[in-house]
Amino acid sequence: MRYCINCCIHLLPNDLHRQCFRCRGPDHNNQKCPVCRGENKIPLYTDRKQMKWLAVLEVRTDHCESWNGFFCLRKGKLCSLMFGLIIMTLVMVSYILTGAKHGLLLIPSPFHYGAFASNPSLMDNESLSDMKDYYQPSKMNISYVKDYPSIKLIIDTITSKIEFITRQRPDLEELRKQEPHMFSVIPNKFLPNSKNPCWYEEYRGNTTTDPYATNSYALYSKRFRIIFDYLRKVFWNHLYHYKDKHYRLRCLPHFYIIGQPKCGTTDLYDRLRLHPDVRFSAIKEPHWWTRKRFGIIRLRDGFHDRYPVEDYLDLFDLAAHQIQSVLQSDAVKERGKRNNIIIGEASASTMWDNNAWIFFYDNSTEGEPPFLIQDFIHAFQPNAKLIIMLRDPVERLYSDYLYFASANKSVEDFHEKVAESLQLFEGCVLDFSLRACVYNNTLNNAMPVRLQVGLYVVYLLDWLTVFNKDQILVLRLEDHASNMRYTMHMVFQFLDLGPLSEKQEALITKSPASNTRRPEDRSLGPMLPTTKAILRDFYRPFNTKLAQVLFDDAFLWKRT
């Protein structure tokens, strides 16, 4: 509708101002007109709503109906409305994010995961730390919990799903199909006069050839380059020349310290390397069997080029040079004695880390790996000796957290990470076997703390499927710390090492402990009593089985 500006008389669309006093002619008197007098307040009806019209400067209206009024708002009002909506959205997002972090949301938080995907295509450009995105929420999605009774229900569910089922050992031919290059390099027979699995390999290079030019350990790590610079200088002097051909001595370790992390393996390594008959790889933890041969340099960086077995064998060249010197000596040749030097390797991931299998090996049975690290080691070294150092899994997990957590470490944060990891593990065992969950890369990288590393008996039973029990020495860190001389004697006897002088033994047993807890980590103090109780309940059935397998109740860790 339209309105006369001069006299405010209600007009119809086609009135043509015939009812307007002012428009009727020059005789119209504004003072006499009751409508036009300024002191009178004439109510104006706009779309059937009454308005108090005090002063009218100008009125311009279009044919807008009431249902379309919202779109006729002025720009200022529309901008204000949009700004308000943006502010409200930001406030809601802030509430959701902070609420999810501190467990304050009124709706369930999606920390409980269920089935996981096993997609080999993820390996190309994905970081292993990003695998958590491939989890799907479980039907039993529950809110984040901190109280002991609620978490105890989760632990009870996990305990009810525990089954220790013996795995089927793969055939040798199946292993050959998976790693043909490895089997082409490592022979099935070794030199008889050496404790180590050693053999001669023809070297086809010349004096100007760099034998370590393509070694991945030297290329990817600056701290290893000094070692390889030395090896280059002495390499030609240690070749064996026979009938115009050159041969280099290649060796694999006689024994492996295979686990577990944060259980004293570094201290055992540092003491054992002081023995005059023991040599180790050029670097303490090559991680070749578990990571490097799959192209894993750092877990967060995903996959790179795979390290060939030749790169791994290069790490034992220093020891091979010494063994060769002994083998070529006249005394050994005449008496036919064996060389007493033994080589060791101490990657603490060897026992448990089979996370990369899913990207390289097919024919998985219900999510379980068809091949494990021990299958390949046994295929080449059926007489290898294995040393395992264990620790109360509850304390191991806390030490692991303190060592690897980068920032914001606290006992409360540790408690929250334990609770979240338990929920993730529960979601897995509801749908998959225990072995499938323990060796699943996606689950292991999703859990904030490495619960699975403390499930010692699961890994030990799998190693016992390929190695005899007398080939494995299992130690406790608690015993090593309280009576170091006794544990070192056990190791010497296990490795058939000769007797030591008092001075040599004192040097090995009385040196300070290695890789102890950092001062800043000690300041945090012990974990919360509730956290310890939760972890005790979680690890109890696994410790019980471990004690049964080893016939030693000390592995129950009741007194720690």
TrEMBL record:
Lineage: Eukaryota, Metazoa, Chordata, Craniata, Vertebrata
Family named by the database record: Belongs to the sulfotransferase 1 family.
Enzyme Commission number(s) from the entry: 2.8.2.-
Signal peptide (from-to): none
Name of the featured protein: Sulfotransferase
Alphabetical list of SUPFAM superfamilies matching this protein: P-loop containing nucleoside triphosphate hydrolases
Domain Sulfotransferase: 253-517
Alphabetized UniProt keyword annotations: Membrane, Transferase, Transmembrane, Transmembrane helix
Gene3D superfamilies listed in its UniProt record: P-loop containing nucleotide triphosphate hydrolases
One Gene Ontology biological process: hexose biosynthetic process
Single GO MF annotation: N-acetylgalactosamine 4-sulfate 6-O-sulfotransferase activity
Top-level lineage group: Eukaryota
Family matches, as InterPro entries: CS_Sulfotransferase, P-loop_NTPase, Sulfotransferase_dom
Membrane spanning residue stretches: 78-97
